[in-house]
Amino acid sequence: MSRHDGHGISWKRLWHISSIGIILISLAGCSLPYLQPVSPTASSPGEGSSQAAALPQAEITFMVALPQDAPEGQSVYLNIVDEVTGLALNPITYPMQKMDARHFGIRLPITLGSVVKYRYTRGTNPPAVEITTTGQQVRYRLYDVTAPGVVQDLVSAWSDQPFNGETGRIEGKVVDATNNAPIPGLMVAAGGRQTFTASDGSFVLNGLPPATHNLVVYALDGAYHTFQQGAVVAAGATTPATIKLTPAPMVNVAFVVTVPKENVEGVPIRLAGNLETLGNTFADLSAGLSSVAARMPTLTELPDGRYSVTLSLHAGTDLRYKYTFGDGFWNAELTKDGGFVLRQFIVPDANTVVQDTVETWRSPKTGYGTFQVTVPANTPATDSVSIQFSPFAWTPPIPMWPTGNNTWSYVLDNPLNLLTNMEYRYCRNDQCDSADDAETAGPAARGRPFKVTSEPLPFKNEIRAWQWWQPSETPTQVVAAQIQPRGSSYIAGIEFQSNYNPTWLPRFAEAFKEVHGIGANWVMLTPSWTFTDNRYPSFELNPASDPLWNDAEQEAQSARSENLNLAIFPAAHFTGDANQWWQTAPRDATWWDMWFDRYGEFATNFADLAAQSNAGALVLGGDWLAPALPEGKLADGSASGVPADAAERWRKILQEVRAHFNGKILWALPYPQGVDFPPSFLDAVDQIYLMLSAPIASQPNPSETDLENDLGSILDGKVRALQQQVNKPVVIAADFPSAKGLLSSCLPARGGGCLSLDILSRPNPDIPSLEVDLQAQVDAYNALFVAANQRDWIAGVVSRGYYPPAALEDKSASVHGKPAQDVIWYWFPRLLGEQ
User: Can you give the pTM of this predicted structure?
Assistant: First the structure.
């Protein structure tokens, strides 16, 4: 197979590029019915240290059974993948030996201590990839090499042959062997499926075909030794698993690297690796990459011209890594002949120094690109500028280097030998698709062309304007009022939007400084889990859109470092339309039992996060829960079929949450639906978090006075009646977009009703039919503060939908960088009695 897409990349070359760290091998002569081991045919010139050559190996036999209806006469391949470069970009591919029509095998010598990441393909054109029973491509399987062994796998289905059959599940808990403490944030894998442990160490792997699966538990930072054991799964049954992991001691490893002469002086060199601490997000990011450059550790230049970084790592960790001044794919070290480098280092049980040499940064027989861009003078001083490349699709952005006078630079050396044509574009703070150069804005944008040649190519660009960023110098008009100070107990809060992306993590520290700077005393963080297959239902962490446990911890710690009170408001994501998810779910008695079990685990998971983060509040509820509340309704108004004892189930969940968290519990009620039909268990929470979303105006083009009157009517009517009924303090959580007309009307949904305003949040595609109206948002917040100021039964005001990684003047509810933020800056300190 040799196919080129429109951008000129040779997929044949990418598929067959050799990695290092695992010795390259080819098939020796084979004679059925016995499996023959393959033999080394080449050394690995870029291996990371002298240790790699000295490590012993073990022979591992991989056996795979194909689905019953698999076509005959086609080859099957074992692909050992490279998560640092990109799962699809640098595999080692081995043709397997046919045992019979459904069974294939191969023997490989692999370094002891390796944790092999691999998957299977079938020899069609293009290759058929293995998928799970629910249709997702298998990211990879895991095998821990501790001795010679045999692993037996079953392919559930192929990309051209969906699964058809019964399934079972593995459900269990992982604890520390030394103290029985639960371990959150571990990857658990079996049968091509992956999930992560919750705060109590629990996990569920749904949708496994009946078979004996290799169950592996893997620490993303190497903190625990990998667990591996066979697990028998039967159709329609649950296999329990209680697992104890042994913690791995921590040692210091100094990496010292000699760089080639063509190294650009002053350029930050990073260490890209397969660990969470080395930039690996364990997510399928854009274009199939998994690493984020800004999350990688940066080396320091030594007086002799070498570079060094010392890391605290866990003994026994199978570290795969490379040096780069980009990410794992762009500008990472190469072999002299242009091959990708992937180093392997099994961390010893003592402090050590690793001496490495980068052979070259330059692609052979090609030039390189030098990029210099001048950005607008109104670019925020705290922003960084990123460059993004598209060889076949847009890959994750890479930070550029500031060179003064509003200019930023970058040099692209590799892997240009794999390319002929590509595109590039610029954005702010790694937020391409959201904070773009206005000329190349949005996820479907075409970039600036780049044709690879044998000569160096200079690219000098000027960004005339950033998308969604044209701040006015006109002062924001704030309504003058006699403000009644409420004191420090008043909640003056900012709620982050929940459309998380792993590129946000490096920006959180700056975001919390900005939140503190506008006078807020609370920040509401919105970590999330994702609903996937609704048949079970599956509710779990997806690293592409939900923060990993350690990410959530770092976010919370960063907020606390700015002396902000912290609330955790866990959110739910859906892989498709939420209403459709609920509508098509089975919703029978067994399904509801599973749903309440999973939601209970979700709630206690984030209660534990709140407790561990020293948060002052936990916010539960939200509009997405309406079908699961007592007498629940679907979006079309029909009954959801929720069990008659739903109120008792919710009380039990809240009771369990309180056993994990002793702070305040708020229940998020959407207005007006949640106020019209309040759940009967509100007496079990401490405060009401009223989600007040547009539309709030009773007429088009409302004036500030109209908005004050309308908000006053809302608050003095149903909201006040509810507050008196439940006798709980009410916090107003406002969701006001800066889009024309939405204060008095809604975004119509197909089939009736209104779309959620979240559809306006970044990085969702723009809705061209709407116009930006920053003044409407200013007017709404002015009116809200005046109304809240006049009603002493309101315990706080929160601005929802804040977009933390970048200031944008878009149509969303985020006030970050908008004139409405000035209104908040004026009111918050005065309500708190600080001014």
Answer: 0.92
